[in-house]
Amino acid sequence: MAKHSQLTGLILFFLSSTTALASAPAKMPPKDAAEAFKNSEIVFAARVQRTEADKFGFESKASVEPTKIWKGAQFIRGKTIQISGEGGSTYPARIFKEKQQLIFYIDRDLHADSFTNRVVPEDSAEFKTERQILDKMASAQSQ
């Protein structure tokens, strides 16, 4: 009986430790654009000027030129900013392509990973709709 309880304890310890290692980031991804806007410090559209490979060889670092800023202009300094799309141990990196136009919902750390940050590419169905919604929201806030 002692061997059985030791084995059970060992299995429970192993399961709890592997769950901790494979846990997701503390921040959960937004369910939609409205939640992303509310929870982000910076929301802007930008064109990717250059990309750079991360330590794994993925093009997950980008120099982007903002074309429209809806929120957090005080955090964007200069004509070109550096965005990191590097992933974590349990989620993949965001891959950027030169000349790609994107809408970013991010925080001032300028990190746009593929799990916790909403990034909408120009060729997606949501891009045009979200730009229109963001324009209306910005217009309402300025009045």
Structure, explained:
By secondary structure, this protein is of the alpha+beta class. The chain has a single domain (34-142), classed as Beta Barrel (OB fold (Dihydrolipoamide Acetyltransferase, E2P)), CATH 2.40.50. It is 31% helix and 25% strand. It has 3 helices and 5 strands, in the order ααβββββα. It has helices at 2-21, 33-39, 126-142, and strands spanning 42-52, 61-71, 81-84, 101-106, 118-121. A 5-stranded antiparallel β-sheet has the order 3-2-1-4-5. A hairpin with an 8-residue loop joins β1 and β2 (61-71).
Q: How does the major sheet shape up?
A: 5 strands, antiparallel
CATH topology: OB fold (Dihydrolipoamide Acetyltransferase, E2P)
> What is the string of SSEs from the N terminus onward?
HHEEEEEH
Strand content: 25-35%
Low-confidence stretches: 9-24
The appropriate CATH architecture is Beta Barrel
Query: How large is the count of helical segments?
Result: 3
Helix percent reads: 25-40%
Supply the helix-strand structural class.
Answer: alpha+beta
Number of strands: 5
Q: Rg, please?
A: 20 Å
CATH class assignment: Mainly Beta
Question: Mean pLDDT, rounded to whole units?
Answer: 81
Q: Write down the overall geometry.
A: globular
Strand order of the largest sheet: 3-2-1-4-5
Structurally, the number of domains stands at 1
Gap from first CA to last CA: 74 Å
Offer a concise description of the structure.
The chain is α+β, with helices and mostly antiparallel strands. About 30% of the residues lie in helices and about 25% in strands. The termini are far apart.
